[in-house]
Design goal:
Blueprint: E1 2-6, E2 9-13, H1 22-29, E3 46-49, E4 59-63, E5 80-92, E6 97-109, E7 125-129, E8 139-140, E9 154-158, E10 162-174, E11 186-194, H2 207-216, E12 223-232, E13 235-236, E14 242-243, E15 246-254, H3 257-276, H4 287-304, H5 318-344, H6 356-369, H7 417-487
Parallel strand pairs: 3-5
Antiparallel strand pairs: 1-2, 4-5, 5-6, 6-10, 7-9, 8-11, 9-10, 11-15, 12-15, 13-14
Helix pairs in contact: 3-4, 3-5, 4-5, 5-7, 6-7
Length: 489
């Protein structure tokens, strides 16, 4: 039997067996309700170090590895070094919940578990059941759900009393998401680690951890790390108990390429098609039906893409406003087509004369403004080659016509019978020809008015197209500049 005393800690080793004896370990197990320190007033140090490895968007992976930097120093409490090795992150933007699976690696010093490896058969490390030892009460303050994670049943202990405890932790925490700049948004989610039982004064250098995390995040998915910030505060609870929570603020920025390809580019293509639809001739092609089909397709596109858009009570993301404005532009384009179609195709078959003010404003000033060339208005008074309005015929004079030749020279035509018959038939023919001529004149006038209204419709169509194109380009420029500014922040 040999007894080794290291820093007032005693574990008994048996030469016949390797490692401390079960009896000496049982004495330590019986003290699991007490913090493993001989002097309870002596200060202890708590260290937290991690490196962010990857953020993969809706399913994002964070991996933390322990480092050599001292992250926090608590003057009273357990000696503890906590390293977050890895956790899988699910970010629910609709409910603003952050579900994380953490692989915690806890380190602390147990003064009752020390032995001499040479006296214990060369054994320097052993594993012990965690239920039989004191464990630090490190919790996450943002935890809002039941802990359903699987626990590791053992801890590793070396001969100096250093304990390493690896465990998985499923944390469902709240994260206030700012989604107005989606998909060019930057999120700041906080995980607060602390203890309700101990007090501290904390100093936290995070520059090296942030640099290491960015190095490991070069090949991550949807999210990229901006910075890791840390701070500590002293909270006062009931019974004048002070604790030192450690706030870990992980600032991440979304990589927008997925949403640009799946949302913005298809929407831009549909807007380009809507602009190109103005090139269709409105007089001979049903442009309104084409635009209605385009609006229907855009609405179906928005319904399909609705699941990719975040929806919270904090406000509407800018991309939602972008889609709404694009839909409004399409509706205004359809209304413009309806107005032009109404001008080109009157409800009745008879065209009214173009009002004088429309002729002056549209056919003269606006046409000159948009460089629209058209032929001058034809005269509504038709030119006639003969006058059939006079239905009276002069009586037959009885003169012989030379066109009948010599054969009818000596034929005498009765003066009474022939002029009466010819006069009636010729008068009827004259009236029919006058009616046909009047109808042709009316058709010519209507055709002239129709052509004039067509010119009015085309001029207004060209003008509204240029106004529509101007607002589309201005809107696109504002959106692109705004998102570029936010993306480079």
């Amino acid at each position: 039997m040999s007894i080794v005393s290291i820093a007032c800690a005693i574990l008994i080793c048996d030469k016949k067996h390797s490692g401390p004896t079960y009896e000496s370990l049982q004495d330590v197990f019986n003290k699991k309700s007490f913090r493993p320190a001989f002097n309870l007033s002596s200060p202890t140090i708590t260290n937290i170090s991690f490196t962010l490895y990857a953020v993969l968007g809706v399913v994002s992976i964070f991996t933390y590895t322990s480092g050599t930097d001292d992250i926090s120093t608590c003057e009273t409490g357990p000696v503890l070094s906590l390293a977050l090795l890895s956790f899988l992150l699910f970010q629910n933007e609709k409910t603003q919940l952050l579900t994380t699976f953490l692989w915690l690696r806890l380190y602390w010093h147990h003064e009752f578990l020390q032995w001499d490896p040479e006296a214990c058969g060369g054994v320097s490390k052993i594993s012990l059941p965690v239920e039989e030892l004191w464990t630090p009460d490190i919790i996450v303050y943002e935890f809002i759900d039941e802990d359903k994670s699987q626990r590791c049943p053992y801890v590793y202990v070396n001969h100096t009393g250093q304990i390493r405890y690896d465990r998985m932790l499923r944390v469902v925490s709240s994260c206030n998401l700012e989604i107005f700049n989606f998909p060019f948004d930057v999120q700041n989610c906080t995980l607060t680690f602390g203890s309700y039982m101990h007090t501290s004064d904390t100093a936290i250098p995070f520059e090296q951890i942030s640099a290491n995390s960015k190095k490991y995040l070069e090949t991550s998915g949807e999210w990229e790390l901006v910075v890791i910030q840390g701070e500590s505060d002293i909270l006062k609870f009931a019974l004048c108990i002070y604790c030192c929570p450690l706030y870990l603020q992980v600032v991440i920025k979304r990589r927008p390429i997925l949403y640009v390809v799946n949302l913005l580019i298809p929407s831009a293509f549909l807007m380009v098609i809507d602009i190109l639809s103005f090139l269709l001739p409105p007089h001979s092609v049903d442009r309104a039906s084409f635009k209605m089909t385009l609006i229907l397709g855009y609405t179906v596109f928005l319904l399909i893409m609705n699941d990719l858009l975040p929806s919270t009570a904090n406000g509407t993301p800018l991309i939602g406003i972008y889609f709404s404005v694009c839909l409004a532009f399409m509706v205004m384009s359809l209304l413009e087509t309806v107005i032009i179609t109404n001008i080109l195709h009157h409800n009745t078959m008879k065209y009214e004369p173009v009002p004088g003010w429309i002729r002056v404003v549209v056919l003269n000033h606006i046409a000159r403004l948009i460089c629209y060339k058209h032929s001058p208005k034809p005269s509504e008074t038709p030119s006639t080659t003969g006058d059939f309005s006079n239905n009276e015929l002069k009586p037959y004079t009885g003169k012989k016509s030379t066109e009948y030749g010599e054969k009818i020279k000596n034929i005498e035509v009765p003066f009474i019978q022939l002029p009466s018959l010819v006069s009636t038939e010729v008068q009827q023919i004259s009236r029919d020809l006058a009616s046909v001529r009047s109808h042709l004149d009316e058709l010519q006038i209507q055709q002239s008015r129709e052509e004039e209204w067509i010119h009015v419709g085309y001029i207004l169509d060209f003008l509204l197209f240029r106004v529509y194109l101007f607002f589309i380009l201005a809107y696109a420029l504002v959106i692109i500049c705004t998102w570029c500014i936010w993306f480079n922040v």
